[in-house]
Amino acid sequence: MNTPVGTTARLLGAGLRALLVLTVLCGVVYPLAVTGLAQALFPDKANGSELSVDGRTVGSSLIGQRYDLPPADGRETAEPDLTWFQPRPSGGLGTNSVNTRYRLLLSGATNLAADNEELIDQITAAEAAVVADNSLPGHPVDPADVPADAVTSSGSGLDPHISPAYAGLQAPRVAARNHLPADRVTRLVREHTEGRILGFVGEPRVNVLELNIALKELVHRSRTS
Length: 225
What we know:
The structure is a single chain. By secondary structure, the chain is mainly alpha-helical. It has two domains: about 1-45; about 50-225, no CATH class. It is about 45% helix and about 10% strand. The chain is built from six helices and seven strands. The chain has helices at about 5-40, 45, 115-135, 165-175, 180-190, 210-225, and strands at about 50-55, 55-60, 95, 105, 160, 195, 205. The chain has a three-stranded antiparallel β-sheet. It has a two-stranded antiparallel ribbon with strand order 1-2. Strands 3-4 form a two-stranded antiparallel ribbon. Helix 4 (about 165-175) runs antiparallel to helix 5. The chain is elongated and about 95 Å long.
């Protein structure tokens, strides 16, 4: 005979059994299966696409990073280390200010409109810096040759790639700073230029971290040969 108490107990029992089964399936079996397949089929990507040099992890090919000199005394911002290829600006980046126990990196766009005076000033200053940093005696950089990705950040601020045009613009400066033949550094850029995905998706691009790792190896070989 069904009673309110019996019905309630039966429904609670069914609900608890369903909760237990779904917890095991969705919380244990499924995550372990997906993790196992990822580790078996795509171990590099599953572990964050880390890049290592001499056994030490130096970053991820999916996340951009800056190459700066230590801040000079009295300065809050660091100057770019011009011996390396530089990434896109990261104007959308911020640092964690709530839980200061951890040094977290926050990403995001600037959300400034195209006609915003602050954004225009940022782009103008960035363009002037690119021209000044990459102009060499007898090899001035024309502001008209500065590509858009050299002066604007991506939507996330963490874009690890730059355009081949921006990498090529930096090649003479990088070669001069590292005492390398300019044509060899230009060839290094070409060797690390990735084409469009499937031949038609996206744009050609250069991963800055991978390029700088190759640059470091090239500099080491030139100094030991």
